[in-house]
Amino acid sequence: MRKMATEGILILIFAFNVALGIQTCCGKKISRGSFPKGFVFGTASSAYQYEGAVKEDGRGQTIWDIYAHTFGKVLDSSNADVANDQYRLYRKDIQLMKDMGMDAYRFSIAWSRIYPNGTGRLNEAGVHHYNNLINALLANGIESYVTLYHWDLPQTLEDRYTGWLSPQSIKDFAIYAETCFKEFGDRVKHWITFNEPHTFAVQGYDVGLQAPSRCSILLRSFCRAGNSATEPYIVGHNVLLSHATVVQIYKNKYRPKQRGSIGITLDSFWYEPATNSLEDVEATQRALDFHLGWFIEPIIKGDYPQSMRARVGSRLPKFSEAESNLLKGSFDFIGINHYTTWYANINTTNLIGVLLNDSLADSGALTLPFKDGRPIADRAHSIWLYIVPHGIRSLMNYIRQKYRNPLVIITENAVMDDGNSPFVSIKYALKDEKRIKYHNDYLTNLLAAIREDGCNARGYFVWSLLDNWEWGAGFSSRFGLYYVDYHDKQLKRYAKDSVKWFKNLLAS
After folding, report:
1. 470 classed as catalytic
2. From 231, 272, 282, 412, the catalytic residue
3. How does pLDDT run across 201-223, given as a tens digit for each residue?
4. H/E segment holding residue 246
5. Is residue 412 among the annotated active site residues?
6. Which of 56, 92, 343, 390 could be a cystine partner for 19, CB 3.0 to 4.6 Å?
7. What is the mean pLDDT of residues 80-86?
8. 276: how many CB neighbours lie within 10 A of its CB?
9. Which of 224-228, 301-305, 396-400 has the lowest mean pLDDT?
């Protein structure tokens, strides 16, 4: 066990050291032609953040419909009932992608548009909508990358058996996923089972800051029920088994004829040791284990990281031998959502653990974006996103070294602007030089990871095409390449300067 832990630490140090040589690549001008043949550029979105039309054409309610309409849950008290109204305006938005030269669009299907009650009666109107969307994308030369679950669980399943906390969710998700393969798989060649299971397991079932807002007794001002020490792990376990079950269905029944690929999207910060001490280096490895390793190791190795087994103990569910075999190799590609880099050091006080007894404390690592009072880098318009371009190169090398260089697609990468300031005019908001520099520098580092280090990355999806409703932040943050005027009845879209930058990049 100590040998394996030491090996992981050496890989961690290697990935960090590789990124220190980034100066050799950053002076070069990048273009589409800089990237390997077949490298995919696209934009990303999710159903709940984009579609709106929450009560139309038979769509059922989701856990986020309930959460967003609960007082005090969303920063600006907004909701996504209309969002970007892409349910109606998708043809115009497809034209925006085409004009930029994007190859692909990553979007999610709303489970409750296909099965309003999570299972049972199929909603033909929902099937019809996604058929129209997929066909319109194809007609404009844009590939569909479809996420089956992007956090919007049908509320009826939450009411019936507490959603992802029940093994019944595995069966119902499999029925829903197979329906999508049947209805859309002749044209959709890239499937993603889940988006960021780590995020919704922790935020939804540990700290209660996302739907369905469950957490332990000391956070009861946020939550009505829950157990922060056990529920995140139960949810993660059921989600992993759901993923593996659906991948098996696709590979056995649909891929031979449809010839598509299937994977999962995982989120991960990059973490760097706050000091060179062995304790901080080991804490950094645990931070990565509890963030990325929690979900990537089961689908590669068939079990959770050893540090999780050792520190969580009996609260961490076990896989049977059959489940482990089902999980192992259950992907054609791994999507990675990466935004930022933080420091990690050993958590000597364990104050969070004493107060909350939760999954965040189990790693024994304290992760922060600053040390000695100084931030790790320039901050975007958020308390959590700091701009550290070499982090993406370090993360890619870490995955290459530790997990045998799987095929990776960057399924989200972005920086946000202020969304609500009354002093920022639309004209000024369109001048997004920070976003241009962010994407240039992160793409340059990704390119170096591919060309110089041998990382197997094959795509890059910008979050996001449009400004959108950002979960608990509401409309207070703007990630879009296009500015959306929420005061305009038609939700007019305006191209930011980054649109022109991407257009030039992709045309070159």
Report:
1. no
2. 412
3. 999 999 999 999 999 966 566 78
4. helix 231-249
5. yes
6. 390
7. 98
8. 8
9. 224-228
